[in-house]
Amino acid sequence: MAFDSRTAAAEQSRTPAQKFYFAAWRWHFYAGLYVIPFLIMLAVTGLMMMFITQFDGRDGEKIAIAQGAAALPIRDLEAAALEAVPGTVKEWIGPKAADLATVFRISTDEGQRLVALNQYTGEVLGSWDRRAGWYDFADNIHSELLIGTTGDRLIEIAAGLALVLVFTGLYLWWPRGNAMAALVPDLKARGRALWKSLHAVTGFWMSALLVVFLISGLSWAGVWGDKIVQPWGSFPAEKWENVPLSGTTHASMNHGHTNDVPWALEQTPMPASGSDAGITGIPADTAVNIDSLVTLGRVLGMEGRFRVAYPSGETGVWTINRDSMSGDGDDPFIDRTIHIDRHSGKILADVKYEDYSWMGKAMAVGIPFHMGLMGTWSFVLNVVFCLSVIFVCVSGVVMWVKRRPAGAARLAAPPAPAEVPFMKGAVLIGLFTAMAFPLVGLTLLAVLAFDLLILANIPALKRAFS
């Protein structure tokens, strides 16, 4: 009883700014309870994928060969690949340099297989399942927790709540005295004060980058990305005048869970072969095959590594593609997707970076940046960032452990103020969040209902969560 009276007295003595600080701290704490395990998982799996891509590669792009005098015709390489792995050729992946292997993707009864060859000798260097490596294991955890759609939704909620964590954290960090102390950690401090200083300063310096990563990651998510942002930011097929469209979208070019198609095109309908539409691509007296398609790609300015996807069915199209998201290059501003009629060899569509919507352009840059594929500088920056995320999460847990009373059988959450100032503004922000991020909004409403309706009315639970 005496404790309750002291708590009530302390509550009465707090200024509105102090009450709002405690409210922000409480939301920061509760968001962290859910978000921290996910942020650590995302940072660790992100590091795994970046190091694997940097040093081993995903699609055989790091396999070195001795450069010969002249490469064999691609049709000969295709035949050698099919002899090694019987099936249907789906994609040719060109080498980044003359001393690196050529790769074919082949669809088999067991799934998608990649076959690497020496383009100068026709020697098959190896074959593997595109989705069976350590990169893919880490990617499956990073995107779906190995449990499919449910995992995607849980991660989407975590990413949205992480935005709440960032903004409440910035409010708690905001300098209210010595501005320099907010920008540079106080290494002279000891105990929880040192951890708090390191946590706050590191969190501040990484906050902008974390928001970029969260937004770009959310744009891949199943609800906010697939259902809201991506349809709105997709390339409109109406830009292709008088080009017949098929009943499938560009996402049909993806194999398994591997999304190699540019984000802005995934939900755009594919052109269809079999009409008189298009402009001259492959000369009329030249056969339309993989060799002429690769030659056309080089004539159109494709340099280094690019891909040619084979047509599916009579109305399918050949697709020449270079996409930095797939590691084809480190410059997203020269990404390009070209569709060619499989019968006439005419160019039906040619989509470049400048043709995307502003959201499509943002994602064309944001995705390879998110993946550390924009050169060595982005790889190093992302490694430092991921390590910072892990440190901020661990330091947050350490601060909680140091603040929590020894032996206490309760959560030791920051106390909830009886009256929260600026409540109308907070409600408006909550409503905006619910409309912008549906799963996050529903989660915030559920937590608020739990706090107000259950915790406030069940003393045992209130003590446990206090």
- Strand order in the largest sheet: 4-3-2-1-7-8-9-10
Terminal residue distance: 16 Å
Give the helices and strands as they follow along the chain: HHHEEEEHHHHHEEHEEEEHHHHH
Helix content: 40-55%
Counted beta strands: 10
Count of helix runs? 14
Fold and architecture overview:
The chain is α+β, with helices and mostly antiparallel strands and 466 residues long. The chain is built from 14 helices and 10 strands. It has helices at 2-13, 16-55, 74-84, 134-144, 149-173, 179-183, 192-218, 224-233, 290-299, 358-370, 376-403, 423-436, 438-455, 459-465, and strands spanning 88-93, 102-108, 111-117, 124-129, 245-249, 269-271, 307-309, 317-322, 336-341, 347-352. The strands form 2 sheets. The chain has an 8-stranded antiparallel sheet with strand order 4-3-2-1-7-8-9-10. It has a two-stranded antiparallel ribbon with strand order 5-6. Strand 9 and strand 10 form a beta hairpin. Mean pLDDT is 87; it is low at 1-9.
Topology record:
Layout: H1 2-13, H2 16-55, H3 74-84, E1 88-93, E2 102-108, E3 111-117, E4 124-129, H4 134-144, H5 149-173, H6 179-183, H7 192-218, H8 224-233, E5 245-249, E6 269-271, H9 290-299, E7 307-309, E8 317-322, E9 336-341, E10 347-352, H10 358-370, H11 376-403, H12 423-436, H13 438-455, H14 459-465
Antiparallel strand pairs: 1-2, 1-7, 2-3, 3-4, 5-6, 7-8, 8-9, 9-10
Helix pairs in contact: 2-4, 2-5, 2-11, 4-5, 5-7, 5-13, 7-10, 7-11, 12-13
